[in-house]
Amino acid sequence: MSDVSTLDLAAPHRSRPVTGRRFLLIYNPMAGLRRRGRLSRTVETLHDLGCAVTLAETTCAGHAAELAAQARPDEVDAVVAAGGDGTINEVVNGLCQRAERGEGPPLPLGIVPLGTANVLALELGLPWRGAQIGRVLANAPTRMVHIGRCLPDNGPPRLFAQMLGAGMDARVVASIRPHMKRQIGKAAYMVEGMREILSNPRVGYAVEIERPDGGRERHEVASAVLAKGHFYGGTYVLAPQARLEDPGFQVCLFLRGGRLTAFAYAAGMVLGGLDRLPAYKVVPAVRVRITALPGGPTGEPVQADGDVLATVPFTADIAPYTLPVLG
């Protein structure tokens, strides 16, 4: 089996004349270092199935978005993100630049899961073996996915495919260092989550919700997660009704703060009983406004698909177009 690092990144590699899809495969060399064989096998399978694959390695934050934005529909049939949820989020933002400018629909997105959590890949039900991933990319039809849009008061708009969070989960994401994720994987979230609980920060948010039926409601919460899919942090379920194909999201409201309540939330999520806690509520929405409560700190982080992308206050809605996804 060839190592991806030995492949020429300047041109497509073909094992036979191309008869299938043409892919631009964008991969993060720092994501899933121990899963490099999965990527190699995926590429080999695509070649064997007659697909053209152009490999592009990211070199810095934001590079995946730039590479995806440069993809042309007359040159490639789909853009594949090989990495974690953060890399996928960047590719999604790059792909959708055409639609944001009114130049046409986004190119289809493909995924090779290599990251720590791989929540979107789990949501899509993608396989984990390289050969199976290659067959999905080569043959699967597209699913039309509605994606969320974060509109910060102090920053550019950003898209999210799986989730957007303000509060405890965003502070945990902001505190994790890349080397920690590489060394201990998902345990990094547990370590930082415990540290966040024990620090017991007194932070609160006002959440203004516009429901799909046009109704409006307001809540004061300790944390909030806007879920496009029902999985969170792996296979934990926050919003059982959330689906990627729905033109809205489910707003998960953590109504109370404090250490004991935070431990109850964590236990409820792990044991599958979160929806039975009286301090937890899920509300369907098409538009949400989140601000800090009076007297609260400013500049609190906002995480989307596992990376910090903005600060509170912000508004979130659904993008006015769909993203085709292979899977």
Summarize, please.
Helix content is 28%, strand content 31%. It is α+β, with helices and mostly antiparallel strands and 327 residues long. It has a 6-stranded antiparallel sheet with strand order 6-5-18-15-8-9, covered by helices on one side. Strands 14-13-10-7-16-17 form a 6-stranded antiparallel sheet. A 4-stranded parallel sheet has the order 2-1-3-4, with helices on both faces.
What does this structure look like?
This protein has 327 residues and is of the alpha+beta class. The chain contains 10 helices and 18 strands. It has helices at 36-48, 63-70, 85-95, 97-100, 119-124, 130-139, 168-175, 178-184, 187-199, 259-271; strands at 22-27, 52-57, 78-83, 109-113, 142-152, 158-160, 163-166, 205-210, 216-221, 223-227, 231-232, 236-237, 249-254, 280-285, 287-292, 301-304, 307-311, 314-326. The strands form 4 sheets. The chain has a 6-stranded antiparallel beta sheet, with helices on one face. Strands 14-13-10-7-16-17 form a 6-stranded antiparallel beta sheet. It has a 4-stranded parallel beta sheet with strand order 2-1-3-4, with helices on both faces. A hairpin with a 3-residue loop joins strand 11 and strand 12.
List keywords for this structure.
disordered N terminus, 6-stranded antiparallel sheet, 10 helices, globular, alpha+beta, 327 residues
